[in-house]
Amino acid sequence: MFWLGLTKSRTAAMETLRMGFGQLQIENGTLLVLGDHVEVQMRLVEGLRHLVRRDSTEHMCEYLAGNSFQRPRAWFNSMRADPMGWVDITQVQNLFARMEVTSDRQTLFRFLSYIMENPCPSIAADHREAAAIESKKFSFNGFLSLICRCTTSWVLHRVLVMLMAESSGALATDLDIANRWIELQRRIMISLLVNHRFWGRESRQVLSALQPPMISTAMVEELQELSQEQWNALFQRVRAQGLASVLPQYDGL
């Protein structure tokens, strides 16, 4: 999320994930659900990103999570709710149409119906949320989860496109994908290290959290313990000598 421009802070990214899935320990099966109806999710998030750029200078995650999700709450409150405070699918369709986020109502309806049938387990475990889902309606938490899950889907889709970009029509093996994933993380590290002034201080936290296979556990621990002065020295060293000065080299990477 940070490298792809959806956020400027790790805190906002984590809060987006937490509100999307109810917790930060996300099961693989919960992510696999996002693979269906991916086209409408991409259009939805792109529409929201356009709205954010038009309305604010913030990144999308900060825009959504700021002031305890004040803006999504305002969107939700603009819809006509039932006595329980829930809104139906038609209300959500109308909201996104008014916001000019997406105009394909039929495809959006199928996606929203699919989300109702495949709720996030950790959110549906709450009895109030389960009652809203059973009624085929969105509570505020359900509506917020919808947006945050789509945001996560957008990130996963973008990463998958980058991993598959060099396949040239051939079926990529698991080893190919693994190597491309390592190389992508390497590109991210190069960008965060060399362009430190652009990424800002949050890049240190992102770098410390990255644990690609090419980095040992000991090196990760060392990154997490670096002082401000040591980080500055590291950035200057990378700019002067290149990433090879701090990372081991592997054949084919």
Task: Report what the structure shows.
This protein is mostly helical. It has two domains: about 10-165, no CATH class; about 175-245, no CATH class. Helices cover about 65% and strands about 0% of the residues. The chain is built from 14 helices and two strands. A two-stranded antiparallel ribbon has the order 1-2. Helix 3 packs across helix 9 (about 140-165) and helix 5 crosses helix 6 (about 105-115). The longest helix has 25 residues, at about 140-165. The two termini are about 25 Å apart.
Quick overview:
The chain is built from 14 helices and 2 strands. It is an all-alpha fold.
Whole-number count of domains: 2
Rounded to the nearest angstrom, the distance between the terminal CA atoms is 23 Å
Query: What overall form do the CA principal axes indicate?
Result: globular
Q: Percent helix among the residues?
A: 55-70%
Mean pLDDT: 84
Q: Secondary-structure element sequence?
A: HHHHEHHHHEHHHHHH
Strand content: under 5%
Oligomeric nature of the chains? single chain
User: Rg, please?
Assistant: 20 Å
Query: Can you count the beta strands?
Result: 2
Structural class based on helices, strands and sheet pairing: mainly alpha
Give the helix tally: 14
Low-confidence stretches are none
How is the largest sheet built, in terms of strand order? 1-2
Largest sheet: 2 strands, antiparallel
Q: Which key phrases capture this entry?
A:
about 250 residues, mainly alpha, 2 domains, two-stranded antiparallel ribbon, 2 strands, about 0% strand, globular
